[in-house]
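## retry 2 of 3
previous attempt timed out at serialization; input unchanged, resubmitting
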Amino acid sequence: MRPLAEYKTLVFDCDGVVLNSNQLKIQAYYDVAIKFGANKTQAQALVDYHVKLGGISRYPKFEYFLHEIMRQTVTEQAMQALLDRFTAEVKRLLMDCEIAPGLMRVREANPHAKWMIISGGDQAELRDIFQQRGIDKFFDAGIFGSPDNKDDILARELAAGNIIASALFIGDSRYDHQASTKAGLDFVFLSAWTDVEGWQDYCANHQITVFNHLGDLS
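## retry succeeded, writing output
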C-alpha cells in the first residue's frame, strides 16, 4: 500500500467498512428465512451460505436458499417475496447502524481523490440509505451495487475512466480482495467488523495489509 495521499481513487465496500452492518445482515437473512417458512436449521444454512459468499449480492443467495435448502422451484414470485422482505428489513437496520469512525478524517487525509462505493448490497437501497444518512456526499465517484457484481462494476468503471490509477480498494472479504486484485487495484483489509472466518490466515498468506477500522488509514 502506498501513502494514502498518493491515491487518486478510493473504492470502498459498504458492509463492514463504511457501515457496521455485517451482523445486522446476518440477522436479516435468518429472520427472512424463518418468515418464509424455514425451520431454524434451514435459516442457519442460509446464514452460513451468506457468510461463505461474503461480498456477493443477495440474488444468488436466495436462489440457493430456494433450490438447495428449501428444495423448491426458484420462481419469480418466491424470489420477489424474499427480496422484498429482505430489503425492508435491511433498510430498517441500516438506518440506525454505526458509521465508520474516522470517515471524515480519511476524507481530509485524501482530499483530492475520487471516492466510490462498490458493494454487494442493492444499489438503489444503498443510494437511498447513504442519502438519508448524509454520507452520500463523500462518494463523489458514485455508489454502485447489485444486481451487478463487483467484478463487472470495477471493469465498467475502469473502462469509463471513473476509476483513476493509482487506486485503492478498502474491503473486508475475500471477494473484495480477489475482485480488486483482478482489476489491478491495491487492497487493504479492515478487520474490526469483518464476518470472514480465518481472515488472519487469509491475509497473511496473501500478504495483505490489514487495518482495524477505516479511521486507522489516515
